[in-house]
Amino acid sequence: MSNNRQADLIVRHIDWLITVDPKRRIIRDAALVIQDGKFAAIGKTDEIERSWQSAKVVDAHGSVVTPGFVDNHLHASFQMSRGLADEANAQSFLYDHMYPYEAANTEEDVFVSSSFAALELLRHGVTCFVDPGNYHPDATVKAVMATGLRMNVACSCFDQTKSVMGLLPASMIESTEKCLEKTEAMFERYLGKHKGKLSVSASFRGLNNATDALILGLKGIANKHNSFLQTHACFSYSTHDSSVSQHKLPEIERLEKLGVLDENTLLVHSGWLEPQEVAMLAKRKPTLVCSPSSSMHNGYGYINVGMHPELMALGVNVSLGSDHACSGVVDIVQEMRMCACGYKEARINPRVMPPEQALEMATLGGAKGVGMLDRIGSIELGKEADFVLFDATVPEWQPLYNPVSNLVYGATGNTVKHVWIAGEQVLRDGKLTKVDHDEIMRQVGITSQRIAGRLDMKKVVKLLWPVE
Ligand SMILES: [Zn+2]
């Protein structure tokens, strides 16, 4: 009879364990011990096996293991919009394509879209994400929680139908009071539910369709519940220009004047900044979310003019977000590459963002942005056991001299093999374990037909070549 301590799970013989812990240790032939959903021991396999045993042991030869990734911005309700908003500028993207698409979504559409979003996120190693809100948030929560993925949910809030850029569908506009009321109700409904997998934030979707009263009211609700306020800001020259026209202030300066910028504010994009706004962000230190696929797909230019590397050097937390399927990619591994390489290219400087920094953005940066840095974001003793196992025997991972370089520059999320969240395996051999993976894909096919049936496809799909 062994005196070894009993663990719930041991993952051993990990070729390369990238911990992202305070010392940024990378451990060869590593093992992880999981007990009560948390990391109970981390070390070399031979050392771990001297003091632990478990009925459940996973051999991880040929693998690279990382912390679970945190995607700080993904519209789960847009997952069915891939290919519906190509070659569109900011104004057309929002007002001709995405807002009408969103306004027509039924609860059933949003449920399928959210299941599909969770599938793609988990498939690519994301273990926690932030949703900016839609009009059927309970369907999103139900779909996502079933898969075992962590999420932060919010209500979609717009209280102004008209901006310089266009008119929002009337069904998406609510009074300021209604927006505040439903946000407060969402906190009441979900706080403490789903065993710590679900958290809630306050959200207004963009500065150009929000009154000062809405922004201040939502910040008050977020503060009351010890949460954060999130919004899209400065993603293109148009949103910047619209804000200056309507409010006589650019977006960040308006938030500063309202007194809502602080470490509990999550600003998605923040690419188009005036000099005084750079200083405001450096002083107030909100978390910014860089989403390169979104900017590159529509040519918003925010990698070109953005200041994310400089703001990080000034101590501002910058995380990553994949934004939406309509820019094609929902893969945080590819976002890391696009961010690091995009900024190198824009600055004509290979030193501007090493792969280690991109990986920190997708782990620690995301965890800090969602207010969970004490629980997730790295493989450390006592943190919740969210981790990702990559199959490093496939061509894009070989030869393997530097696993961080291969992860950011060579791999895609498709090389993720297994994922665990709080010690529970939620993805096995690329398939979801807690829900029927193939049934979700079947529903995606049915739902896409339904969506196509109600859209003017010739108008929204840019198919330039004849289809016979
Ligand atoms: Zn977005």
Query: What gross morphology would you assign?
Result: globular
Give the amount of beta strand, in percent.
15-25%
Q: Rg, please?
A: 22 Å
The total domain count is 2
- The CATH H-level superfamily of the largest domain is Metal-dependent hydrolases
Biggest sheet layout: 9 strands, mixed
What is the number of E strands? 22
State the distance separating the first and last CA atoms: 71 Å
Judged by helices, strands and strand pairing, the structural class is: alpha/beta
Ligand inventory reads:
zinc ion
- Average pLDDT for all residues: 96
Helix run count: 17
CATH architecture of the largest domain: Alpha-Beta Barrel
Low-confidence stretches: none
Describe this protein's structure:
With 468 residues, this protein is of the alpha/beta class. The protein has helices at residues 45-51, 90-104, 107-123, 137-147, 176-190, 212-224, 237-247, 251-258, 275-284, 292-298, 302-305, 308-313, 332-347, 355-369, 403-410, 437-454, 457-460; strands at residues 5-7, 9-18, 26-35, 38-44, 52-54, 57-59, 63-67, 69-71, 126-130, 150-153, 162-163, 166-167, 198-200, 202-206, 229-233, 265-269, 287-290, 318-320, 387-391, 416-421, 424-428, 431-432. The protein is built from 17 helices and 22 strands. It has two domains: 5-68 and 378-431, Urease, subunit C, domain 1 (Roll); 69-369, Metal-dependent hydrolases (TIM Barrel, Alpha-Beta Barrel), CATH 3.20.20. Strands 2, 3, 4, 6, 7, 19, 20, 21 and 22 form a nine-stranded mixed β-sheet that branches. Strands 14-15-16-17-18 form a five-stranded parallel β-sheet. The protein has a four-stranded parallel β-sheet with strand order 8-9-10-13. The radius of gyration is 22 Å and the shape is globular. Zinc ion is lined by residues 73, 75, 132, 232, 268, 323-324. The site of zinc ion has 7 residues, from loops.
